[in-house]
Each structure stands twice: as structure tokens, then as C-alpha cells.
Amino acid sequence: MSSSSQNIQREPNRFDHVKIDERTPLISETNNPNLEIRLNDIIEIKTFSTHEAIYLLKKAFPAFIAFLLLQVLQVTNVFFVGHMGQTELAGLALGTMFAAITCWSIGFGATAALDTLCPQGYTSGNPKMAGIYTQRAIIVMMLGFMPIGIIWLFSEQILIYLGQDAELSYYSALYLRYLLLGAPPALIFWCLEKFLQGQGIMKATTYVLAICCPINIFLNYALIWEPLSLGYIGAPIATTITNWLMLFLTFLYIKYIDGYDAWGGWSHLSFEDWSSFTRLALPGMLTACADWWVYELIALCAGYIGSVSLASHRLVLTSTLILFQIPHSLAVAASNRVGNLLGAGLPNRAIITTNTSLLLAVMGATCNAMILLCFKDSIG
Question: For this UniProt entry, which segments traverse the membrane (predicted)?
Fold first, then answer.
């Protein structure tokens, strides 16, 4: 052996002092604190993920039921007016589409800003910030509705200019004129809904709509048919009354049941820093309008093809909206939960909640796909 090989010194081994015999285990039992920490972290993450999955599903279910009840409100007008005649029904459909394009899509998109602001404000150490954000949203949206209301007042001339039938334009404008007073409470109701959801209160809207749905059915019957027999204008009047009732009941819920601690009454701060709302509202408006207007445009194109195509499209659209609400309700619950965790200074838990919600979303999308595949020949 060369001298260089003899000069190589073996590095000391931590097992040199251990006496090895046939009873010595092949894998030593060592206490590694870092390994224990990692194992504890994994267990904690799994436990928290399970907890968050259950929490998100519990919060998403009331939001889904609320959407179904909201659909009942919209279908009620169509049901009663549909028995009056084809012209009245077409005028109602045109008016509903005009309102959706010019108001509902814009308002719905703008309130998406509160999905970010209210949860973080509620858990930021000053829960009344959620109320201040909501008040700013209400003020901005009421100011924004003023030009929309003017457009509604001149909707007949606008529709005729766009080439719509004169009689349909008349009925559409008549519907919008009587719905004019019902739009502001609907927009404020959406703001208060986001305010409550930001506190994790998802059931309030469901309770309110569960009360208002049967009342709306009664109002449509009483105003359109008997005993008042107002005819076509009874539909928008019933909707207007229902919208004000929804707003009133929501205020009562906040005041006497849950959520008022974060409201704190109207504050002068609500007239300041509107940019904190508009910065988030504008992207939400663009997203909602792009999505909403595409559906309305497709409906318009389907109408040019024929009545059968239009009816088929309406069936597909209704099915899509219902199935869409499964992941959408989950998204509402997840958005508010993540906002609460970020506001409380828990970003790591917010990441876990986000990953959990994504997994649930994939499962929900799979269920939707299975429903469509299994019932594609029987729906309709």
C-alpha cells in the first residue's frame, strides 16, 4: 500500500463509540426534534385542512340556497306575465335584459370589491371597518345609479333606435319605469349581503329570501290578476315592493339578530377614500359585465335563429346558472374565509384554505360534469 494511502485519515463516525453486536438494531432510534416538528406540522396542516373543508361547505350551502330562492323571484314575474300574452312576455324579457345589461351586471360586479374589503376589515382589529367599506359602496353605487335611471327613463327611444319593435320597446320601457324605484334597494341589499358574508354570516340572506319569495308570489297574483287587476305593470310593482321588503328585513336582521357590531352606524369616514372601493370595483364590474353580456348576446343571436333555438338556449342557460352556483357559492365562502384569515394576520392558514377550496372546486366541477353526462338526454 502506498504511503499516500496510509496518510488518509478516516473521518470520525458518530457510531464509533457504540458497541455493535447481533442485538443492535439496523436503524437506530434517534430523537430528532426537527423531524418531530415536521411531523407535527403535517398533522396540523391535515387537521386544519379538514376543518376548513367542513367550514367552507357549511358556509357555501346557505349561499347556494339563497341563489335558488333568488331565481324563484325572477321566474315569478315571467310565470304570471306569461299568462297575459306573448307580446307582454316578450316585452318583459326585453326589459329584463335591458336592466341586466345596464344595471344588474354593473352593480353585481361592483359589490365584488366588498368580498375583499369586508372580510379583511372585520378581522383587522377594528371590525367597524367592514361597515365603513359597505357604507362607501352604498354611496358610490347610489351615485352611479343616477345616470342609469335616466337611461331607463328613455329606454323606449333607445330600443327603437337600436331597431327593436315599437310595441316591445313600449312594454319594456313600461316595465323599467315601474322598476325604477326598486333598483336602489336591490343594489343596497347586495352590499349588505356582502357585509354579512364578510363576517361569516351566510344564513341571513337565505332567511330573508325564504320570507320574501312567497310574499312576491302573492304580490304578483294580487297586483296582476286579483283583486287589484293592474295587469302588466303589476309585475314590476311587485318586484319593487319585494326589493324594499328584502332591504328592510336585512336591516332588521343586522340590527336585532347579528352583524350590527361591525356596522357601528353611519360614519363620516364613509365619505372619504372612495378610491379604496373603486379600485377593486372597476375590475369586478368589467369581469361581471363581460360574463353577463356574453350570455345576453348569445340569447339575442339565438332569437334570430328561431323560437326553438331560443327556448333551447334558455334551458341550457338555466341549467348552466344552477350548476355554476355550486362552485360560485364555494368561491364566496372561500373568499370571505381567506379575507378573514389575512385580516387576522394568518397568511399561512389562508394559503391552506385556498388550497382546500381549490380541491373542493375540482370535486364540484367533476360532479357538475357527471350530472351533465348522466342527464344530457333527459334534461328538457
Answer: 60-80, 92-117, 137-155, 175-192, 204-224, 230-254, 356-375
Query: CA 243, 64, 256 angle in degrees (round to 5)?
Result: 55
The full 3-state SS of 159-202, as one line of letters, equals: HHHCCCCHHHHHHHHHHHHHHHHHHHHHHHHHHHHHHHHCCCCC
Taking the C-alpha atoms of residue 212 and residue 348, their distance in angstroms, rounded to an integer, is: 41
Q: How many CB atoms lie within 10 A of CB 140?
A: 18
- Whole-angstrom distance, CA of residue 132 vs CA of residue 246: 21
What is the sign of the dihedral through the CA atoms of 32, 34, 39 and 43?
A: positive
10, 73, 224 from 210: Cα distances, Å: 80, 10, 22
Specify the pLDDT at position 209: 94
Cα Rg, the chain, nearest whole Å: 29
* Domain coordinates in residue numbering, the chain: 61-305, 306-337+346-380
Could you read off the pLDDT of 238-290 as tens digits, one per residue?
999 999 999 999 999 999 998 898 998 888 888 888 888 899 899 989 988 88
Cβ-count burial 191-208 (b if 16+ within 10 Å, e if not)? bbbbbbbbbbbbbbbbbb
pTM: 0.78
**Which residues does 288 contact at the CB level (< 8 Å), separation at least 6?**
105, 106, 108, 109, 112
pLDDT digits (tens, 9 = 90+) for 70-83: 888 888 888 888 88
